Amino acid sequence: MARAVSTKTKIGWTVVVWAVALVIFFPILYTIITSFKTEQEAIQGFSLIPSGTVENYVTVQTQRDYFKPFMNSVIISVGSTLLGVIIAVPAAWAMAFSPTRRTKDILMWMLSTKMMPAAAVLVPIYLIFLRAGLLDSRIGVTIMLMLVNLPIIVWMLYTYFREIPGEILEASRMDGASLWNELVYVLTPMAIPGIASTLLLNIILAWNEAFWTIQLTTTNAAPLTAFIATFSSPQGLFWAKLSAASTLAIAPILIMGWFSQKQLVRGLTFGAVK
Amino acid sequence: MATENTKTLARAMMAPSVIMLLVWMIVPLAMTLWFSFQNYNLLTPGNNSFAGFFNYQYFYTDPAFFQSIWNTLLLVVGVLLITVIGGIGLALLLDQPIYGQGVARILVISPFFVMPPVAALIWKNMIMHPGYGVFADIARFFGVQPVDWFAQAPLFSIIVIVAWQWLPFATLILLTALQSLDGEQKEAAEMDGAGFISRFWYLTLPHLARAITVVVLIQTIFLLGIYAEILVTTNGGPGFASTNLPFLIYKTARLSFDAGGAAAGGVIAVVLANIVAFFLMRAVGKNLDR
Amino acid sequence: MSQITLRNVSKRFGDIVIIPGLDLVIEDGEFVVFVGPSGCGKSTLLRLIAGLEDVSGGTISIDGKDCTNTPPAQRGLAMVFQSYALYPHMSVRQNIGFPLKMAGQDKATIDRKVAGAAATLNLTDYLDRRPRELSGGQRQRVAIGRAIVREPKGFLFDEPLSNLDAALRVNMRLEISELHQQLKTTMIYVTHDQVEAMTMADKIVVLNRGRVEQVGSPLELYRRPANLFVAGFIGSPKMNFLTGAAAGSHGAATIGVRPEHLRISKESGALRGVAGVAEHLGSDTFVHVKLDDGSIITARGTGEYPVEHGDTVWLTPEEGRTYRFDQQGAVIG
């Protein structure tokens, strides 16, 4: 077992690690601080102590209707993820529990669709959406993000399902469970943690997707990514307000992300690193 | 229970995913390929005609094209270098015994969850702004002329922003891999008289090799498609100094309305991505065989 | 109560033949052990009987009723898996009660039977725990509990003790034997460990490459092995085999003598050699002897037999305890 570490060493490392961690976190921290400053304060030079105004948050809502893109983000990210999981669960299931010689090839092929650069198919997708009247519609972006993330969803579910030991399913068969009972009492409860992790990670990915959401929406269906991008053109003194909008845009996902560290590694590396 | 029945059932269960992805892959790609041989301007639809290799030739002779390819590669390689080396360092740091390890780790991984437009705007306005940014404040504190980052080093600035976003990902994966290193191996190496440097070089680094490969390959997929960070900061400029291939395609299609030209660029992007994909498939595929 | 009959049962996976065709009768109430090296097909055979694998040919009948194509749930057999295969999301109580719930029994009956099984297996205090909170031995008992509550026609054990440490294995071995004495139900037990086979079985089936090498009671196999394979597999330490001139003088291709049937002497005997490592166990002494012709054989001496590395010793086989085998490995005589 590890030897006892002297308190002195531990304090030394703590100072170093925390210093580095705070430098990395600083841009986020400073954004949060700035969001509580007045516009004047925001450009007055470096300061970590805001006056504590919440005016920016009020303005972002009243002048820019923040709630609308926020709800669009929720609908699009949750909707595309749920849709994807519903389609992917049976596929991942079949591949995990009755694999054939071709299963591996199918999985690899699915992953390969993820490598198609989005920009390469911008023209046809844009034209299809234009003809079908799907531009700037929530349903259009939702379907798009579902397709983009479907390979990851299938892969994640597959790696989770594959960990359910086959002997347990056999045991339930020996115990007299019908196919339906096996599904209800044994498989579903064992699969739920994996499905939950998949949902969490893919909501995060969909929430932060910033190519298709910007290309395919303008006002009606614009989620937060597209909404924030409109702040890029300088419009005078707006940094405190931008900070408030940014804080609101990243807060929910930041918190979800903190809870999904472990799943993130597994999910995004397709089970290659655990 | 691999009977004929279950096989049929399994096929039916896979069908929706497979068919959707098949359509999603083939239809737009086929259309891109088709458009790339057409004179097709979005402002004058219906005026299409066969263009042969004109679009490719046009794209090829455009000086912006080579610059964008070069920028794409610089962006990918630059970010990879920073994140892999920085990630190993951070992972080693976070693996030390410290107070508040959990919270420190959360702080380090946070940038990954910040959406690209927000990340880019934070850096553009609050950190790198030549007048009001924190870097400018620091420069003035030392009596140095502040740098106008996006004007003087646009691509470098974007590399910094993107590296900040991806550093947590590399750190988290390398840390996970680091923690799976067998403690007894480390102890055996210590008994064999290996110091910190030799332990790192002969034990830790080879152990991390696989995780590093995974980090490099997965980041490459995402880094080849960087778009929003450029859009909200430099908009590809000055000139084409920070335009990468996806951004050039976007500009051609949406700002110049040249669907044919954009499609030709798209075909080139697909070829580029396939070269990378080939290596990724091999690395991930090996993992399936265990 | 049940008799299980296998007729010409075969199993292939694609082109690979696991079991080429096998006949076997397991009598009602018998404790039968399938034993053999890994890859001999013993687990596959058990899974065929369970119905977890489809046979490629032949028939399996239980109590004279053909159930070759009956799904596992309806064969009335219970199985204990090597990994225990407990349901991780259920408490011990729910795990044991699961087969009864599947059989549609009412709650009161389930509770009563679970309590009974738990009492038998010393699990009463753990009923509300999850499997991951139990030790290996306790998990094993839960798996057995889940098998006994439904009062099956027969029990199938697939290497149930291989994940336990040595001391616990001896205990569980006794518990399972005790259980068999109480229930008098047919049990089929798969193991690669010949000690488990010898100590537990009424009847041992020795398997090698999908074929039955020999069937018999433990002592029958010990006394009268049909061939080289069985002779080498049953008994610990392994039987010594000698070929060449020593075997030729007995009119055989190979002769075999068990270590316990060799008398060690320091003065005289049939075979001379030099003692190598001597393992003093207290109850026995195993001496590894290098004979003059170069072959190494093991002999068992009495508990505290005084022998040192390098001593010259003489070995004499006991009368009538030398086994002779022909070129094909079949026993002669």
Explain what you see.
The complex is a heterotrimer of chains A (274), B (290) and C (333). By secondary structure, chain A is mainly α. Chain A folds into two domains: 1-64 and 234-251, no CATH class; 67-232, MetI-like (MetI-like fold), CATH 1.10.3720. Helices cover 73% and strands 0% of the residues of chain A. Chain A is globular. Chain B has a domain at 66-181 and 209-288: MetI-like (MetI-like fold, Orthogonal Bundle). In chain B, 74% of the residues lie in helices and 1% in strands. Chain B has helices at 4-35, 54-61, 63-94, 101-109, 116-127, 134-141, 149-152, 154-179, 183-191, 196-223, 228-232, 245-255, 259-288; strands at 38-39, 49-50. In chain B, strands 1-2 form a two-stranded antiparallel sheet. In chain B, α1 (4-35) runs antiparallel to α13 (259-288). Chain B is globular and about 75 Å long. By secondary structure, chain C is α+β, with helices and mostly antiparallel strands. Chain C folds into two domains: 4-231, 3-Layer(aba) Sandwich (Rossmann fold); 238-325, OB fold (Dihydrolipoamide Acetyltransferase, E2P) (Beta Barrel), CATH 2.40.50. Chain C has helices spanning 42-50, 92-102, 107-120, 136-148, 166-183, 194-200, 218-223, 228-233, 245-248, and strands spanning 4-13, 16-26, 31-35, 57-62, 65-66, 77-80, 154-158, 186-191, 203-208, 211-216, 240-243, 254-257, 262-265, 271-280, 285-291, 296-301, 312-317, 323-325. In chain C, the strands form four sheets. Chain C has a six-stranded mixed sheet with strand order 6-7-8-3-9-10, sandwiched between helices. Chain C has a five-stranded antiparallel sheet with strand order 13-17-14-15-16, with no helix packed on it. In chain C, a hairpin with a 4-residue loop joins β14 (271-280) and β15. The longest helix of chain C is centred in the middle third of the chain and has 18 residues, at 166-183. The mean pLDDT of chain C is 89. Chains in contact: A-B, A-C. Chains A and B meet through α1, α4, α5, α6 and α7 of A and α1, α3, α4, α5 and α6 of B.
